Amino acid sequence: MQCSWGEKALSGYLGRDRDAWQAYDATELVKTHADASRPILIDQGTADGFLAQKQLLPEVFEAACKSAGQPLTLRMQPGYDHSYYFMATFMEDHLRHHLSALS
User: Fold this and answer.
1) CA angle 102-61-32, nearest 5°?
2) How far is CA 95 from the centre of its chain?
3) Which of 39, 85, 76, 79 shows the shortest CA–CA distance to 58?
4) CB 2 within 8 A of CB 57
5) 72, 42 in Cβ contact below 8 A?
6) Integer Cα distance of 91 and 83 in angstroms
7) Is the separation of the CB atoms in 29 and 23 below 8 Å?
8) What is the rounded distance in angstroms from the CA atom of residue 64 to the CA atom of residue 44?
9) In this structure, what is the dihedral angle of CA atoms 8, 13, 14, 19, given to the nearest 10 degrees?
10) pLDDT tens track, the chain, 103 positions
């Protein structure tokens, strides 16, 4: 909700009522649905053009998690962008993370 891409996508799907957007925005959802027993794992490439354009805002999500008591591991991966190679590199970590959470 706090970046131009999010505003464009959410208004396109849900209309201009910003209150309706909150049910689809991860940063807003974590504020009211934090679960200390379900840690979140995020990998973010530091060379991601969307990060540089302020379209991803992981620091905003991180602050919301901290405020809500939601465990979060935010790993900033130097030199990685928004590519398939980035996702393939860290996919195993995320599969293991989800397996652990679901076990």
Assistant:
1) 70
2) 16
3) 76
4) yes
5) yes
6) 12
7) yes
8) 17
9) -40
10) 999 999 999 999 999 999 999 999 999 999 999 999 999 999 999 999 999 999 999 999 999 999 999 999 999 999 999 999 999 999 999 999 999 999 8
